[in-house]
Amino acid sequence: MTNINNLIETINKKKAEDTSVNTEQEAPAQKLTVGVMGIGHIGGSFAKAYHYLGHKVLACDTDRSMLQFAKISGDVDEELTRENMGSCDLILLCAYPQATIDFLNNEGPFIGPHPIVIDCCGTKRVIVDAGMDAAKRFGFTYVGGHPMAGTQYSGFKHSRKDLFFGAPMVIVPPTFDDIELLTRIKSMLEPIGFKQISVTTADAHDEMIAFTSQLAHVVSSAYIKSPTAGSHKGFSAGSYKDMTRVAWLNPPMWAELFIDNKEYLLNEIDTLINNISQYRKAIAEEDEETLVSLLEDGRNRKAEIDG
């Protein structure tokens, strides 16, 4: 995974060596028109962040009452439609993967060449393949994306204008050497608070996200199903809260993400089962020496990675 600043700097150096290449970039407009498809937790937070900064926000959502509420609350200026989406500088697709693919295929002919379209789905291989295909057929610019932010809650009512402050943003561009595109993306995303914008491939993203996010959600959901959980009050503190926070997940969305990424996620689940089996065996056999070694290995691994 490459930081976009480092990537842009490298590309600029290469272009500077070729005097036939014009490296000057067009300055981005001060105010943007941003389209948001899906105003749940992530999409609603994008809408609130851009609107707070004075940009024009157009949005659409299958829940018409929620869209109307967002307009009344002042977080959305107008509905995003086929007639006006071509005027957007940036269109953010913040829905489930299949709904996002449907949007790209159905609305693709109306997007036009001006907007940059970025999906915000939690997996990338399936959606990026569909997005690149639609972009080629309909002539718009598509980039895969994943804002690494969020909470255990869902819906517009839990969205926040500061959700992305200090968070990383991962993008999967069609090419890694388009300095103009990367600069435009950076100029449009950074103002709402992203600390780091990184560039990677769809495969690398999905392999990593299976471990850092999806496995944690599976474990949390399974962990809370213990019969003992119903009596935890008065006996639990930080460890319990840390382990169960993401059990407050959106089941239909996460089920779709898990299946889209099943190869990498199953590998992580199998690895976890194998590791836990070693701990179980040592405990069952009262093998304190092996158990201490396993625990030390885990502690040392944590120190090596995050220390």
Determine the mean pLDDT: 91
CATH arch. level architecture of the largest domain: 3-Layer(aba) Sandwich
The total number of structural domains is 2
Percent helix range: 40-55%
- The unreliable regions are 19-29
Taking the sheet with the most strands, its summary is: 9 strands, mixed
Shape: globular
Strand content: 5-15%
Number of strands: 9
Strand order of the largest sheet: 1-9-8-7-6-5-2-3-4
Radius of gyration: 22 Å
Q: What does this 3D model show about the protein?
A:
This protein has helices at 4-16, 41-52, 64-72, 97-111, 125-138, 179-189, 202-223, 238-244, 251-260, 262-284, 288-306, and strands spanning 2-3, 33-37, 56-60, 78-79, 90-93, 116-119, 141-147, 168-172, 196-199. It is α/β, with parallel strands linked by helices. The chain has two domains: 2-200, Rossmann fold (3-Layer(aba) Sandwich); 205-225 and 239-306, 6-phosphogluconate dehydrogenase C-terminal like domain (6-phosphogluconate dehydrogenase C-terminal fold, Orthogonal Bundle), CATH 1.10.3660. The two termini are 20 Å apart.
